[in-house]
Amino acid sequence: MTTGELDRFATWIEELIRRRGFDIDSPRGGGKSRLADEAGVHRAAITRLLQRQSMPDLETTRRLAQVLQVPVRDMLIQSGRLTEEDLPLPATGQASMGGPRLTLEEAADGLGIAADQREMFLRVAGQFLPSEPVAAAGRRAPLASD
């Protein structure tokens, strides 16, 4: 890893941390400690990253991604550890790229929703769709409008 990659990643993650409401700029803001606590990592790992001394290990990266509400894929690409070609997005559900859209039933299958919870899943998830809502468990509805 080059110094430039570390600096680029640290700059990117600093902005993300600020947008998520962690005060990392004032000495007594407590943002670094709060971030470390919420992620379940050592404060020193946060400090080393923000001071551009070292890149977090994979487990720390995973935990930070969860707290900062960003996919681990994005963290790994932004860190320079992997490229978009190394971590391609799956073809299914890539509506923005012209790919096929998942139905709620396909999503339930993919998520392993148990049969006794399927109808509730379809009803609840259907409420968040911008297109027509799901009225019954057997009805197929796209995850996003066309």
From TrEMBL:
Q: Which InterPro entries match?
A: Cro/C1-type_HTH, Lambda_DNA-bd_dom_sf
Under Pfam families, the record lists: HTH_3
* Taxonomy, superkingdom: Bacteria
- The record places domain HTH cro/C1-type at 35-75
Name of the protein this chain belongs to: Helix-turn-helix transcriptional regulator
